[in-house]
Every structure is written in structure tokens, then in C-alpha cells.
Design brief:
285 residues, globular, single chain, two-stranded antiparallel sheet, binds zinc ion, alpha/beta, TIM Barrel
């Protein structure tokens, strides 16, 4: 076709990391019975997601009755069960408040398990009906714990102010480069899950930042496609979205990962295995 050579080349063609967020910090509401709800289910689902192509798994813990928790013992059960398999992916443990309002050191006890990565929520926001408290003094303390343990913070930014906070903490020397950021869009109380918001937040990132973007609910897939097109990395999983298609519940985390592996292949971005993902993130494992 005349003029075809003039088509702008894709913005990105390098390898892409697929991350899977296995279960979240919201109490299980029964809307998707496939959501993992206890240590064994969470670990098994994480290993399945890894087998399906996720180089990184993002883990929240739950008590035996499904209540979200920051308990080191519950995290240990999950991590031990995963490490007892042939899993060689990257563990990313959550330091969220597990649905509570705490901003104390119990939030990041899971760093003791020496994951390669853990989430670092870079600012306070309304999170649904509750306040997710991440004041600056807490963020400085938590960053010190990450540095001591040699764990990479995945800096979760739920709105543009959180990115500005991350860059301020970088300038203070609290957050060390290289920075890894997760743009989380679509949380009620954070930035809406629109492409316009993704473009805006993405535009605030320094070039050298390695970034993922994820969207909650129906914004999951559009934001995956945005990241795929723009050189970002991908996060899917039942934590963020219960559905596969509108009105059709996802059967498993692995099913959501498999879709992204197919889409990445179609767009010419090879899916990174765990070691390639470590290289892309400059993890020193
Ligand atoms: Zn999470």
C-alpha cells in the first residue's frame, strides 16, 4: 500500500514483564469464587500464574477465614509453599495495610522473608470507603527497612501526587535508583482508570524509570494495552479485576496471564522470563 513505509514504528518492541496480582486486600465479597482466599490457595495460584508466563507475582496474605492480614506468619506460609516448588519467578510481597488503617512497622514485617521486591505505596488516599494512610514519616521509615533488607520497592502510585512524592523521596536519598513504579489506576479515590490519566501519569516519569501500569476492574485490559504499546510492563490478576470479559468471571489468575502472553506475542514484545525480568529491573539476584 502506498505510503506504508511512513507508518510510525511502534513505541516499544523490547521484552515485557507480566506480573500477576493474586489476591488483594479487600475482604472477599464472594463475587468471584475463584479468588484465592487462604495461604495454600494463594501460593498455588501464584505458581500457576508463573507457569502461565508471569515472571513476577504480587502477594497479599489472608487469614484462614479469608480476612486480609499483614501477619508475617501467613506470609511465611505462602512464601514457603511457593519456594517448595520449582518456582523461580520474582516474589513481590504487599506492604499494604491489609484493609486496616495502620501505618506502623507491622506493615512491612514481610520484608523479613527477603522477597526480591515488595510494594511501596507512595502516598495517602481514600481507598474505597477507607483511608489508606501512607504519611511521609512512615514512607521514610519503610524505605529504610527496604534498604536494610536489600528489597526493591515497587513504588505504587495511585494518583499523580504520589509520583511527585516518589521523586521528592528520591531527591532526599530515601528512595534509591533505579526506580520501579507501578501506576495503579481506577481505585475509587485515586486516578480514574482512563487512558488520559495513564498518559498524564506516564508523562511524569523520568525516562530511566522502569514502569508497570495496572487498571482496576474494566480498565485492566485497556491499561495493559497502553503499557504494551508504550514500553511499560504489565500487571493483571484477580486482585485488580474479577472478570475475563464483561459479565464473564475470570476462572483463575493463570487465565488472565495467558491472555497477556498472547497479546504480547501479537504485538511483537516477547514475554520476559524471570531472569530477563531481573535484568530489566536491574535486580541483583
Ligand atoms: Zn496489591
Amino acid at each position: 500500500m502506498p505510503g506504508q513505509d511512513a507508518i510510525t514504528p511502534p513505541a516499544a518492541d523490547g521484552p515485557v514483564i507480566v506480573q500477576c496480582a493474586i489476591t488483594g486486600s479487600q475482604p472477599a465479597d464472594g463475587r468471584n469464587p475463584n479468588l484465592p482466599r487462604n495461604s495454600n490457595e494463594i501460593a498455588d495460584s501464584a505458581v500457576e500464574a508463573w507457569r502461565a508466563g508471569a515472571a513476577m507475582v504480587h502477594i497479599h496474605a489472608r487469614e484462614a477465614d479469608g480476612t486480609p492480614t499483614s501477619s508475617l506468619e501467613r506470609f511465611r506460609e505462602i512464601v514457603d509453599r511457593i519456594r517448595a516448588t520449582e518456582f523461580d519467578g520474582i516474589l513481590n510481597l504487599s506492604t499494604s495495610s491489609a484493609g486496616g488503617i495502620t501505618d506502623g512497622p507491622e506493615r512491612y514485617e514481610c520484608l523479613e522473608l527477603e522477597p526480591e521486591v515488595a510494594s511501596y505505596d507512595c502516598g495517602t488516599l481514600n481507598f474505597g470507603e477507607r483511608i489508606f494512610a501512607n504519611p511521609l514519616p512512615f514512607l521514610r521509615e519503610m524505605a529504610a527497612a527496604f534498604r536494610e533488607r536489600g528489597v526493591r520497592p515497587e513504588i505504587e502510585c495511585f494518583e499523580p501526587g504520589h509520583i511527585a512524592t516518589a521523586l521528592r523521596l528520591r531527591d532526599e536519598g530515601v528512595l534509591e535508583e533505579p526506580l520501579t513504579m507501578q501506576l495503579v489506576l481506577g481505585v475509587v479515590g485515586g486516578s480514574p482508570g482512563t487512558l488520559e490519566q495513564a498518559v498524564h501519569m506516564h508523562s511524569m516519569l523520568p525516562d530511566e524509570v522502569t514502569w508497570f501500569a495496572c487498571g482496576i476492574g474494566r480498565s485492566q485490559l485497556p491499561l495493559n494495552l497502553y503499557s504494551l504499546s508504550m514500553g511499560g510492563h504489565l500487571r493483571t490478576g484477580l486482585e485488580d479485576n474479577y472478570y475475563y470479559h464483561r459479565g464473564e468471571l475470570a476462572q483463575s489468575n493463570a487465565q488472565l496471564v495467558e491472555r497477556l502472553v498472547r497479546l504480547a506475542g501479537e504485538t511483537g514484545r516477547p514475554v520476559a522470563g524471570p531472569d530477563e525480568a531481573r535484568r530489566l529491573l536491574s535486580l541483583s539476584a
